[in-house]
Amino acid sequence: MHQQTETTLHRSVVRENPYQPHMARIVRVYNMVADNYLFTLRFVDEQIAGTFTHRPGQFIMLSLPGTGEAPISISSSPSRPGVLELCVRRVGRVTNALYRCRTNDLVAIRGPYGNGFPMEELMGKNVLLVAGGLGIAPLRSLLWYAIDNRGRFENITVMYGARTPQDMLFRDELVSLVGRTDLTCLLTVDEDPGGDWKGHIGLLPQLFDYLAIRPERTCAAVCGPPVVYRFILKRLLDLGFTKDRILMSLERRMRCGVGKCGHCSVGYKYTCIHGPIFTYWDAINLPEMI
Amino acid sequence: MKILKLEKGKLDLFASVVQQFGEVHAPTEHEGKFSFKRLNSWSEARLDYNRTVLPPRKYFLPPRETLFKYREATGYVPATEDLEKRVVLFGVHACDIHALNILDEVFGKGYLDPYYLTRRKNITIIGIDCTPDEHCFCRSMRADFAETGFDLFLKDIGDHYLTFVGTARGDDMVIATGPLFSEVTHSDIVEYKRRSSQKCDTFKLDLEIRDLPEIFELEYQADIWEELGEKCLSCGNCSMVCPTCYCYDVADEVKLGSHDGDRVRLWDSCLFATHALVAGGENFRKTRSSRIKFRFYHKQRGFVAEYGRPSCVGCGRCIEACPVGINIVGVINRLRGVEHASTD
Q1: Does residue A105 lie in a domain region?
Q2: How do residues B244-281 score in pLDDT, each as one tens digit?
Q3: Are the Cβ atoms of A69 and B252 closer than 8 angstroms?
Q4: Does the bond joining A276 to the residue before it have cis omega, within 30 degrees of 0?
Q5: Looking at the predicted structure, is the pLDDT value of residue B214 above 70?
Q6: How far apart (Å, rounded) are the C-alpha atoms in residues B174 and B165?
Q7: At B192, which helix (H) or strand (E)?
Q8: Count of CA atoms in the C-beta half-sphere (13 A) of B129
Q9: ipTM entry
Q10: CATH of the domain at A217
Q11: Which chain A residue lies closest to B85 (C-alpha atoms)?
Q12: Which residue, among A156, A161, A137, has the nearest Cα to A146 in the 3D structure?
């Protein structure tokens, strides 16, 4: 009888292994700005490629065989399945190895992981996305999900700030949204050394001057470097947003993605399974969160 | 629960029969310290040990294990070689069994860790009684008696061991050795209860865990954390010897001159400076004081929120292993405002 149990468990290592990465092919490498590429990936296994889905705000564990594994947020929307888009800055060992890859090279992926944005909470409400710099990476998934399911949301507003026009991620795509009538897209750059930026110049919080929003019917999703949180959170509170209506996406060191390895723990929560999307209320209550 | 008794003089006979259930490992002595090791002969077993340097965790979450083999043609292929080994751990203390039950919560809930769980199934646990020494505080952590998590548990009642049968496999072991076991008598029960309450009185360390999560929240900014940070060497000894610490690192190791390699899992410690470091250089726990605070906070506050009990069993290993004498019982009693004479 024991023998039978062992065989079952042995099989779980092979078949139901949560750490099992699946091979994926790089189908496109797009140089968005210096040291910030957009990688488009497709699982080699057609069944996985055809069935993989995620919630906006979730992440995957990306393996570069021989180099290691790192958590990367998914920038594409589940409303556009078949491929995964990862907006990756070259900062660490794994991302450096990824930058040496070319189209058709193989990497490995497992996931998706994390809670993602609470879509049932966001549907039927106004959605305000505020991103600074690389913070657009996880929010872009939510943005396109909302656009592709336009009827399920009230007003959609996106505010994005980059240092210069040359640092603006998804620039063409976002600029193309500016003229649309079904959503509001506000873009700004801190400075414009090249002199070719036709939009707003100034810091991200200044975009609030152009905003007409009813906080009681709105959820805000914020992502960016610490300076963004410092100014934007206060601004949102001043506008009357309650702390559980402000969502933020966090970054932590992760080795497992499934709530075991301990690295991503903040206070008494794990970023990988309880997050990476937390409310501002969580952030206040969990030590060392931001 | 099925309870029988085993004559002490027949323990070696019992151990020899138990071999058919797996390789027998038990505490052995080396230069005054104890460690779980494979026995060459039963005479090496030291069932009167106080605590082993490393807890039994090393059998379930080894210090280093290969999770996958990477081959260029096949990608990541799960490594299964070591998982089928059948081991009998003979002489595990109640606190260490509690620790395994805690690890079961971590690796056996939510996403299941098949490596840990396969080992847990293949390793037989025979628990044994112990006598608390000056570092033990398992009673305070409610871990001085194990109700589950063992196949057999032996309780000393003088000439005999009361043998609690915890699983079907434990029962198989009893049946395999048949005539060695006999029925428990009324006087055995009386003797057991006498010894049990006597043991309760021998603890030298004590702490109250009832409202610790609240105390930790209230004292999050207390000076004691800075003080401990000054003292702590960030050596990680306390987490290496901890029976419930489960933090691990994962790394890909490439074989020289090839593209093939292994993905390995290695013990890690939240005391290490890189534990909360992310790519790009941001470190969420830069200071030693923030890291040692995190370790205590996670065990006594964070784990309670997630799993309903602290992830500490009071085994005393961290107290014994700390090179600068940081004593978790002393720290907690100070946070609580209770000075305890024997913890300084």
Answers
A1: yes
A2: 999 999 999 988 888 889 999 999 999 999 888 887 78
A3: yes
A4: yes
A5: yes
A6: 8
A7: helix B186-200
A8: 17
A9: 0.89
A10: 3.40.50.80
A11: A6
A12: A156
